[in-house]
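Researcher: I'm comparing several assemblies side by side, and this is the next one on my list. It has 1258 residues spread over two chains. Same procedure as the others: predict the full complex and return the structure.
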Amino acid sequence: MEKMARVTTALGGNTLTGRTMYCHLDAPANAISVCRDAAQVVVAGRNIFKIYAIEEEQFVEKLNLRVGRKPSLNFSCADVVWHQMDENLLATAATNGVVVTWNLGKPSRNKQDQLFTEHKRTVNKVCFHPTEAYMLLSGSQDGYMKCFDLRKKDSVSTFSGQSESVRDVQFSIRDYFTFAATFENGNVQLWDIRRPDRYERMFTAHNGPVFCCDWHPEDRGWLATGGRDKMVKVWDMNTNRAKEIYCVQSIASVARVKWRPECKHHLATCSMMVDHNIYVWDVRRPYIPSAMFEEHRDVTTGIVWRHLHDPYFLLSGSKDSTLYQHIFKDASQPIERANPEGLCYGLFGDLAFAAKESLVTADSNRKPYPGDRRHPIFFKRKLDPTEQFESVSSSALSVFETEPDSSSMGWFVDTARRYALAGRSLAELCDHNAKVAKELSRNQVAQTWTMLRIIYCSPGTMPSANLNHSIGKGSASLPLMNSFNLKDMASGMGSEARLDWSKGENRSENILLDSSATLITNDENEETEGSDVPADYLLGDVEGDEDELYLMDHENAHTEEPEYVLPQEAFPLRHEIVDNPSGPDHLQDKADSPHVSGNEAETVSLTPVESFSLISISHTLYESRLPPDFFSALVRDMLRFYAEQGDVQMAVSVLIVLGERIRKEIDEQTQEHWYTSYIDLLQRFRLWNISNQVIKLSTCRAITCLNQASTTLHVNCSNCKRPMSNKGWICDRCRQCASTCAVCHHVVKGLFVWCQGCSHGGHLQHILKWLESSTQCPAGCGHLCEYT
Amino acid sequence: MAEGENEVRWDGLCSRDSATRDTALENIKQAILRKAEPLRSVKVLPYRSSEQPLNAASWDGFNRILARLLMLSKRCPFEDVREKSQFILKCVQELGIRIPRPLGHGPSRFIPEKEILQVGNEDAQMHTLFADSFAALGRLDNITLVMVFHPQYLESFLKTQHYLLQMDGPLPLHYRHYIGIMAAARHQCSYLVNLHVNDFLHVGGDPKWLNGLENAPQKLQNLGELNKVLAHRPWLITKEHIEITDSFCEVEALMEKMKQLQECRDEEEASQEEMASRFEIEKRESMFVFSSDDEEVAPTRDISRHFEDTSYGYKDFSRHGMHVPTFRVQDYCWEDHGYSLVNRLYPDVGQLIDEKFHIAYNLTYNTMAMHKDVDTSMLRRAIWNYIHCMFGIRYDDYDYGEINQLLDRSFKVYIKTVVCTPEKATKKMYDSFWRQFKHSEKVHVNLLLIEARMQAELLYALRAITRYMT
């Protein structure tokens, strides 16, 4: 038995062989550690302290270190470590705070060597120096770390972390003098073994206790930490400040973390609670473990790679009283069960779809989609030469193109550019937008705008002009398509006619009605009612005299006022976009809506009578008996309809143009959703100014604040040419006013233009003037500035 | 009660906006004076006049309103409300109607009223706490007033209570209060039982349930046994308990219940020292007194409706017959294991409780009686570990000899009584330990006791759940 330490070194080197196997322990394990030669493993726990030899087919118990009759708490191990230089030397941390060393070379049965009883509380961790034979480090619940020289009876130095209990201590592999300690309050400290008075560096790594840490075995100064917050983080310690370079989110608190030998980015973790599996992660792929060992039935308490240079053998001990050897090729790979897929919409309606090749080929017998431009592109990850898994992840990418002309988005851009959203009266806006839509041959949208104008403003000369215009153009006869009951309408409205707009394309479902049947003109009403309605002279913008006569009511008239917005300074207003490729039939479905018939697809030919009738209708609609919000439900439905059709442009434009009139009808969330969709679209088309305008005009708080985010721009100081990080006018490096005008030498407060090459600049006017006569920098630095 | 539109509405008083409070007060005043008018003529207190039952009812209602006003005039954190309530009372009195007078001795029987902070004298931090509590519950209960000795802890305590009892969670609100009732009843704390009964009815609980546990849903009845064990001998909890309960309710709900038990227990103990025990037992010098507790008279009050098996009580861990293995903290501790499990079952609660433990355990002003700059960590640890020791929880790294050196006999008696059978705590016990110490320090001890006990119970319960899950 005394020879045991040398029994099975035959394996040596990288030639480990074996299989997945386990053995029963008599008691739950708390920690395990391997001998340098990878042939033996020590298991320690509250009631167990044994050495097992790892043979080809099984574990064989070699030695029981718990000797003596009376059980002592000194044997109740929280941690165990086997010296990597001296195969006879072991150290354990006892739950009662004692640090014990064991010498396997002792001839007696009791191998206990030294006993250090300096810690007041449980010792959580012991660690040998990687190269120094006699140096042992311990970390305890009492908040102290102690360094022992095994040739002496007492510790040689004590380190006080000043931050609660120490959970782990690890000597750096690279720096002889450095060790890392992790704490219950989330801190990680770096210490120099020669300076017990103060830590070299401290940073907060986790929220809650940091249970473990591990230095990267290769020479890179990486430290992995695991905490109760379920995270594994990898820190780059080479820089001045520890930098988090990777973060893996596990599903339970992380009790142990161990870098995988020979694999730069792999590490193994196990959990302290709830989750019994051991995971091997590729830190670059933090969402799914690259391998998983699921053998244990209770929490895994100790994991260790069997050999320093062998990435395929992992040993683990558990509370379920078993000791396992896991072989990598038996690991389960969660990735195999996952179906990674990617889907992305292109700006112009293209659709790209990537999936595992196996999945795509499986249904290849399907009829190919006409627009399918399929590129079977296979991405092969370059294989890590050390990686044992041969599963090549290849994927197929399919791109579905839209037919070039079927849904070109040109209209969107045009409409967005040309719409007017503010700055004029509602009537003008509506007319303008209707015109824009018409010119883009989006008749239905044009009609919608016209109708909005009719609903919310008094009918003026413009709409009729518009209509006439369209009449002139139109060649086709009027296919009217609304299916509502005239009689209901008439009674509901107190008389008169409605116009049917045939909106949208001609759909085959639409019923063609005889136009004369639906259009009823009512000239008499027009006149009489016109005189009934009190004229409202508050409205300054009406175009025609008659307009005033047909105001709906005072409330509407007032709400009109805020529309006169000052011209926007920064950029010229663009037109809002309205467009609806698909038909707005739904308007017609409402029995109580005024209908104007017009057909988008083929322009509607309206007889003059009809256009007249349009006017007359609107008059009657605006009889003062109608409540002001009579139409808002309808308009709301219309907006919803457009949005659902995918024309969020129309929905948002109308929303902005109508403002308060309709805003309350639609809940905040929907509005916000529309706005964000539209803004997103605009930005994809790089219509920055327009998107900005939309943001500005929106009334949603969530949207308007978009413009206030990340508006800070750091400039360079024009004196010292270093970035200015502070606020205000003074550069904190050279203590001078940084933003002075190079021409007049005053501080510029307001519009500041500067050269990105030399950082000089000044008042916009001054610089412009200067550059008229000179090409060089006004500051005299010799730079050939370009202010464009 | 013919209240109708005359009904007095109190809810405006909880507002932080003084204008809103003002309006509410004015409305209350109007309503009360309206009510008082018809009652003026009746000079005799009509409780006794059986020939006027109708009138008696309205008197009853009116007096309840007056009592509430009185409470507000004493216990509202907002000064304007206090003053105005008093004013209204005076008005009523001037109408020739008798008004109620405060009877009690302040929030605690053990601590003289003058030692306790008077509402109105609090500092800014305390005021915020009071206002928060008042806004959430519409009252400042005795517990709050006593705990305000340690505002830092109180804040954490109220936050946890609020999260468990009022916020969204897996259990319906009235279930939570019912569990609170069950837990408080286990220790015969009428004050807490009443508080929870009120809240229970307030959130729409079925009054029938209050007639006894057998009227409650099966799910809650199953908790009865667990409640009993948890309250008195948590070390007996096994995974079978969890299984039984689990067949009817999911583990999350169970967890919550346990937490609540714990919570209520907390309150309970805190309040126990405030309230005179109904069971005047002689002070017994010996710790062994508890071995004979089983013969003790079963509580007769109606509280006993809420629990069964009244004879079940704490038994000395080491003395009862069965062998139960010692619970070793090194194998299952709150920081490493309990926290994760609780957070998994009931998100955020782990964090809240963890905070509370930390605050209670680490709370120190570095003073002891008249001495200053004392490191009290040793003493705190001794108290904490002593309590865990009573529940059979052992720390490998603690020398239990320290306890005997630090805690004298009368203190131990007090600890044991409060922790195990709080209903038997007496003023005499309270007074007899640590005579030199300030009341705030004794309250601190109580906080330590309740948190330590809560952790002990939690550890047992959570370990059982862990075993059940694996």
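Model: For your comparison table: Chain B touches chain A through 15 residues (CB under 8 Å).
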